[in-house]
Write a structure and sequence with these properties.
By secondary structure, the chain is mainly alpha-helical. The chain has one domain (about 20-230): RNA polymerase sigma factor, region 2, helix turn helix motif (Rna Polymerase Sigma Factor, Chain: A, Orthogonal Bundle), CATH 1.10.1740.10. Helix content is about 60%, strand content about 0%. It contains ten helices and no strands. It is globular, with a radius of gyration of 19 Å. Residues about 1-15 and about 105-130 have low confidence and may be disordered.
């Protein structure tokens, strides 16, 4: 196990390898250490990009592109301690770029309520064989995801980053290029739009989950490309 020299013993809750330490290792030539950053940020990046793109294949591709671009530009990162915020900003730009490409290919594509309302959010999910309580939980989760999908893009991303990912408002503002006051306004409007269906569900850690097997697969995809380009 890697040992980290510190002036005081780390607490039990402290991460043994903060982002800054892992970034330093990668920049020092330890390419394999990048897998730790991919695994650590998969869930947050997935939820971020999922706020813009609807198709799972598109989301996966955008995540991969984000990680590869971040790796390529890692020497340009001014503060290693802010890798997470920097990565999210890259992910948002990648997602928006893919949206622009898609809009040029499909005339009249619009992110409106009708299209999001028809989104098949539960293609591979079934609650028929689960206990009643699990089935109810799953129905609520699907309802919440569908309700969030109805939000306009600029409100959806703020809601996801704050209420699902738990990021603070200043950090969200940095990611989106917004002032803290504008971020608060968008969050408030998002909650107002959702209040009829999200009365007791404004924070739900299970929404847009990125399961362990998907996390492993994304790590494998990114690292395979980086190794091939060594």
């Amino acid at each position: 196990m890697e040992s980290i020299t510190t002036t005081t013993a780390p607490s039990a809750s402290q991460h043994p390898s903060p982002d800054a330490a892992i970034v330093a290792r990668v920049l020092g030539g330890d390419k394999e250490a990048y897998a730790q950053l991919v695994r650590r940020h998969n869930q947050k990046l997935y939820r971020t990009i999922r706020s813009y793109l609807r198709e799972e294949d598109e989301v996966e591709d955008a995540m991969q592109d984000t990680y590869l671009l971040a790796y390529q530009k890692l020497p340009q990162l001014k503060s290693r301690a802010f890798f997470s915020t920097w990565l999210i900003r890259i992910g948002i730009n990648v997602a928006l770029g893919k949206l622009r490409e898609k809009r040029t290919r499909t005339v009249g594509l619009a992110l409106d309520g009708d299209e999001y309302g028809s989104l098949p959010l539960s293609n591979s999910r079934s609650t028929l064989i689960n206990p009643e309580e699990m089935a109810i939980h799953q129905e609520i989760k699907l309802l919440l995801e569908k309700a969030i999908d109805h939000l306009p893009e600029k409100y959806r991303i703020v809601y996801i980053l704050r209420e699902v990912e738990g990021m603070d408002l200043p950090e969200i503002g940095q990611c989106l290029g917004l002032s803290e006051s504008n971020t608060k306004v968008r969050l408030h409007r998002a909650k107002e739009m959702l209040k009829e269906t999200l009365q007791a569900l404004s924070v739900h850690q299970g929404v847009f989950g990125y399961g362990a097997h998907r996390c492993d697969a994304m790590v494998a995809r990114v690292m395979a490309i980086l190794r091939a380009n060594a």
